Each structure stands twice: as C-alpha cells, then as structure tokens.
Amino acid sequence: MLRKARCEGYAVGGFYAWNLELVQSVVNAAEGECSPAVLLINQTGLNYAGLEYYAAFAKKAAEKATVPIVLHLDHAQNLELVTQCIRCGFSSVMFDGSAFPLETNIELTRKVVEAAHGVGVSVEAELGRVPRAGNGLPVEVSEASMTDPDEARRFVDTTGIDALAVSVGTVHGLYKRYARLDFNRLKRIGDLTDVPLVLHGGTGIPDDAVHKAVELGVCKINVGEALRRAYLNGLKGALGNNSGKNDVMDVLASARLEAENVVRGKMRLFRSAGKAD
Ligand SMILES: [Zn+2]
Questions:
Q1: What pLDDT does 225 receive?
Q2: Total-model pTM
Q3: Which of 83, 96, 229, 233 is the most buried (most CB within 10 A)?
C-alpha cells in the first residue's frame, strides 16, 4: 500500500480509531473518498477495548470495506503485544524502540521483523524520537531527538523493516499550533534509505508542508489529535441541552459523522482520495 503511494505521489493516512464508531468513521470516509487507509490503535486503546473484541470488529470492517484498509498496531513497546496482535489478525505493526540506544533498538526491531515477516505482516519502526505535546511544552523539536540520516540508513539496512517513522520536527498531539519540519534532514533520510517514510503527529503539520514532505518520500501520515477533537466535539454537540438527541445511537452517530468529515479532509489533503484502485 505504501510503495504504491510513493510511486504515485501521495500519502496514506493512519487514523487513530479507539472504538467501533471511529473504525466506522475511517472506513466510511475511505469508501466515500475512494481512498486507502490505515486503522491505528495502540496499547492504551487495546487496554480500553480489549484486544480480542477490538481485533474482531476492526478486522471485519477492513475485510468488508470496498477499499484497501490496513489494521495497524501503533507504538508497540514489546514483542509480546506484537505477537498477540498478529495472532488476532493485525496486518501491520509498529515497533517503537526509539527510547533505547541505537544498538538495542536495532536488536529488538530485528526480532519483531523476524516474527512478523514469518507470517506476512509488515513492520514500521521508529528512529529518533517524535515528542509528545504537553502543557507549556515548546513546539520546537530538539536536534538530539531528530532522526540522524546516516543512522537511518544503517537502521533500515540491518533491521529489514518495511517503513520508517522519522523524527523531523513533528510532535504528537499538536492542535492549532504547527510543527516546523526540517526538510533538509527529511531529504537526506529519503536519499539514503529506500523504505516508505512515516510522519507521526500529522495533525500539527501545515498543509503546504504535508505536500512537500510527500514529495520527499513520506508515504504515511498518522493522525490522532484531529480525530480525538472531532469525535469529542461531536459528542458534546449531541449531548448539549438544545440538540434534542436523547438516544445513545443518535449521539454516537453524530460523533461518528464529525470524525468521518475530518478523515475525508485529511484524505484529500494527503492526495490519497481517488487512489483506491
Ligand atoms: Zn506516533
């Protein structure tokens, strides 16, 4: 899915879907926009929903969709969770060893690649560290946490991963404020590696920077914050005193639609709309 995106000059959106309604938001948007999509869930989300419940409905939604949908485990920090998710039908996993020194990250990532490739599951890994926005935290990302291009080449070559998440200025959880991307660094990483590149923290990337990043080899952009906001706003609106909605399904359907519209907008921005052929 990502190699096709790289060839044709667009990025596939990875969208956080914490519950049934958000899975439906993403799949409905993908079918409506004729776009491929990646459903994202992480350990926290799986703790909430229960891995087997979540995998059952998300996998079914992906199978039944009329467009390509990947079910992807995001930011796994241990092999045990990766193995459980693969057993439950995930088609793609991200192992995040970015908190470890390079050699340890390589060693752990290789183990994940071995386990995943044996059963036809693809692996994304992270080098450098994409920070998380917090109260009062500066948007600028320190040089030290950004991906080093030469290390990226070695990391890709020695681990055999299918996609590389890079730290080039994006921040998890940004909303309204924008991250500033280091395009020189991104270009060097793209020149030195041949795997699809992934940006996390997609909500906080300005539109023109999205297009420039795609030109430099970014094939997947993760979006969580924008969906979280849209879904919660949809819920709040539907629960407001004047909404007239007092049915559980009406309330959740409002939130689902609000999130779907955000996903549709991102698919057009990433230029994946119309590419699900
Ligand atoms: Zn991330």
A1: 96
A2: 0.96
A3: 96
Ligand 1 mean position, distance from CA 218 (Å): 14
Residues in the chain, pLDDT under 70: 135-139
Are 188 and 182 in contact by the 8 Å Cβ rule? The answer is: no
Per-residue model confidence (pLDDT) at position 177: 85
CA distance 128 to 110: 17
DSSP element (H, E) containing 64: helix 51-64
Question: 130 CA to middle of ligand 1, Å?
Answer: 7
Q: Give dist(CA 180, CA 166) in Å, integer.
A: 14
The pLDDT, as a whole number, for residue 137 is 61
Closest CA to 248 of 7, 20, 8: 20
What was the pLDDT predicted at 136? Answer: 60
Neighbours of ion ligand 1 (CB under 5 A): 200
Q: How far is the CA of 196 from the centre of ligand 1 (A)?
A: 16
Torsions phi, psi of 35, nearest 5? -125, 145
Q: How far is the CA of 276 from the centre of ligand 1 (A)?
A: 24
Classify 41 as helix, strand or coil.
strand
Q: How far away, in angstroms, is 222 Cα from ligand 1 center?
A: 7
Residue listed under structure tokens 């849209």: 230
Annotated catalytic sites, by residue?
Answer: 74
Cα gap 220→200, rounded to integer Å: 9
Asked if 85 and 59 count as a contact pair (C-beta separation under 8 A), the reply is no
Residue spans of alpha helices (H) in 88-148: 102-117
